[in-house]
Amino acid sequence: MEKIDRYRHCIKEVIDRHSSHPAYGDAEMQQIFDTEHDHYQLVHTGWYETERLYGCILHLDIREGRIWIQYDGTESGIANELAELGVPKEDIVLAYHPLYKRPYTGFGPDKRQNMQ
Q1: Starting from the edge strand earliest in sequence, which strands make up the sheet with 66-72, in order?
Q2: Under DSSP, is residue 67 helix (H, G, I), strand (E, B) or coil?
Q3: 99 contact partners, CB below 8 Å, separation of at least 6
Q4: Number of structural domains, the chain?
Q5: Residues in a beta bridge with 58
Q6: What phi and psi, each to the nearest 5 degrees, are found at residue 12?
Q7: pTM exceeds 0.70, yes or no
Q8: pLDDT tens per residue across span 36-63
Q9: DSSP label at residue 71
Q10: Could you give the CA distance from residue 53 to residue 111 in angstroms, rounded to a whole number?
Q11: What is the C-alpha to C-alpha distance for residues 78 and 116, in angstroms, rounded to an integer?
Q12: Are 41 and 56 in contact (CB under 8 A)?
Protein backbone atom coordinates (compact mmCIF):
# COMPACT_ATOMS: atom_id res chain seq x y z
CA MET A 1 0.00 0.00 0.00
CA GLU A 2 2.96 2.31 0.59
CA LYS A 3 3.83 2.13 -3.12
CA ILE A 4 0.27 3.05 -4.15
CA ASP A 5 0.24 5.98 -1.72
CA ARG A 6 3.52 7.21 -3.20
CA TYR A 7 2.08 6.92 -6.73
CA ARG A 8 -1.01 8.88 -5.65
CA HIS A 9 1.28 11.61 -4.30
CA CYS A 10 3.27 11.71 -7.56
CA ILE A 11 0.09 11.93 -9.64
CA LYS A 12 -1.20 14.76 -7.45
CA GLU A 13 2.10 16.62 -7.83
CA VAL A 14 2.00 16.33 -11.64
CA ILE A 15 -1.66 17.40 -11.81
CA ASP A 16 -0.98 20.33 -9.45
CA ARG A 17 1.90 21.44 -11.67
CA HIS A 18 -0.18 21.37 -14.84
CA SER A 19 -3.24 22.98 -13.26
CA SER A 20 -1.20 26.09 -12.52
CA HIS A 21 -1.03 26.90 -16.25
CA PRO A 22 -3.47 29.68 -17.15
CA ALA A 23 -6.75 28.73 -18.78
CA TYR A 24 -8.28 30.68 -21.67
CA GLY A 25 -11.06 33.19 -21.16
CA ASP A 26 -13.34 32.45 -18.23
CA ALA A 27 -12.29 28.81 -18.01
CA GLU A 28 -11.01 27.10 -14.89
CA MET A 29 -8.86 24.07 -14.33
CA GLN A 30 -10.52 21.34 -12.28
CA GLN A 31 -8.58 18.60 -10.52
CA ILE A 32 -10.51 15.38 -10.09
CA PHE A 33 -9.14 12.87 -7.57
CA ASP A 34 -11.02 9.61 -6.99
CA THR A 35 -8.72 7.93 -4.48
CA GLU A 36 -11.24 5.18 -3.74
CA HIS A 37 -11.13 3.87 -7.33
CA ASP A 38 -7.76 5.47 -8.28
CA HIS A 39 -8.94 7.63 -11.18
CA TYR A 40 -7.36 11.07 -11.62
CA GLN A 41 -8.07 13.83 -14.14
CA LEU A 42 -7.33 17.42 -14.95
CA VAL A 43 -10.00 19.13 -17.06
CA HIS A 44 -10.66 22.68 -18.15
CA THR A 45 -14.18 24.04 -18.23
CA GLY A 46 -15.78 27.42 -18.81
CA TRP A 47 -16.25 29.97 -21.58
CA TYR A 48 -14.13 31.91 -24.02
CA GLU A 49 -16.27 34.80 -25.30
CA THR A 50 -19.30 32.95 -26.75
CA GLU A 51 -17.63 29.58 -27.05
CA ARG A 52 -18.01 26.81 -24.48
CA LEU A 53 -14.74 25.25 -23.38
CA TYR A 54 -14.45 21.78 -21.92
CA GLY A 55 -11.75 19.19 -22.28
CA CYS A 56 -9.63 16.60 -20.58
CA ILE A 57 -5.98 17.53 -20.22
CA LEU A 58 -4.79 14.55 -18.15
CA HIS A 59 -6.35 11.21 -17.23
CA LEU A 60 -4.45 8.69 -15.13
CA ASP A 61 -5.47 5.53 -13.31
CA ILE A 62 -3.69 3.25 -10.89
CA ARG A 63 -4.34 -0.35 -11.92
CA GLU A 64 -2.54 -3.54 -11.00
CA GLY A 65 -0.01 -1.53 -8.95
CA ARG A 66 1.04 0.65 -11.88
CA ILE A 67 0.18 4.09 -13.23
CA TRP A 68 -1.78 3.94 -16.47
CA ILE A 69 -1.72 7.17 -18.48
CA GLN A 70 -5.04 7.06 -20.32
CA TYR A 71 -4.70 10.51 -21.87
CA ASP A 72 -1.93 13.10 -21.91
CA GLY A 73 -2.82 16.42 -23.51
CA THR A 74 0.33 18.22 -22.40
CA GLU A 75 3.10 19.34 -24.70
CA SER A 76 5.85 17.93 -22.51
CA GLY A 77 4.43 14.48 -21.74
CA ILE A 78 3.93 13.45 -18.14
CA ALA A 79 5.46 9.96 -18.26
CA ASN A 80 8.96 11.40 -17.93
CA GLU A 81 7.78 13.74 -15.16
CA LEU A 82 6.53 10.73 -13.19
CA ALA A 83 9.82 8.92 -13.79
CA GLU A 84 11.73 11.98 -12.53
CA LEU A 85 9.62 11.81 -9.36
CA GLY A 86 10.88 8.28 -8.76
CA VAL A 87 8.20 6.12 -10.40
CA PRO A 88 9.98 3.23 -12.16
CA LYS A 89 9.40 3.32 -15.93
CA GLU A 90 8.16 -0.29 -15.86
CA ASP A 91 5.32 0.91 -13.55
CA ILE A 92 4.14 3.54 -16.06
CA VAL A 93 1.88 2.23 -18.83
CA LEU A 94 1.20 4.47 -21.82
CA ALA A 95 -2.36 3.20 -22.27
CA TYR A 96 -3.02 5.56 -25.19
CA HIS A 97 -0.57 3.54 -27.34
CA PRO A 98 -1.77 0.29 -28.91
CA LEU A 99 -0.47 -2.94 -27.39
CA TYR A 100 2.01 -3.62 -30.18
CA LYS A 101 3.75 -0.24 -29.67
CA ARG A 102 4.12 -0.34 -25.90
CA PRO A 103 7.27 -2.51 -25.79
CA TYR A 104 9.09 0.18 -27.80
CA THR A 105 8.16 3.17 -25.62
CA GLY A 106 10.67 2.57 -22.84
CA PHE A 107 7.82 2.34 -20.35
CA GLY A 108 5.90 -0.56 -18.84
CA PRO A 109 4.23 -3.02 -21.15
CA ASP A 110 0.67 -4.19 -20.69
CA LYS A 111 0.71 -7.70 -19.19
CA ARG A 112 -1.69 -8.80 -21.94
CA GLN A 113 1.23 -8.53 -24.40
CA ASN A 114 2.73 -11.67 -22.89
CA MET A 115 -0.44 -13.59 -23.78
CA GLN A 116 -0.15 -13.03 -27.53
Answers
A1: 28-34, 39-48, 51-63, 66-72, 92-94
A2: strand
A3: 110, 112, 113, 116
A4: 1
A5: 42, 72
A6: -60, -40
A7: yes
A8: 999 999 999 999 889 999 999 999 999 9
A9: E
A10: 37
A11: 28
A12: yes
Amino acid at 4: I
CATH for 104: 3.30.310.110
Q: How far is CA 28 from the centre of its chain?
A: 18
Say how far apart CA 46 and CA 29 lie, in whole Å. Answer: 9
Q: Spell out the per-residue pLDDT of the chain, length 116, in tens.
A: 799 999 999 999 999 999 987 766 788 999 999 999 999 999 999 998 899 999 999 999 999 999 999 999 999 899 999 999 999 999 999 999 999 999 899 999 766 544 44
Domain that holds residue 91: 2-115
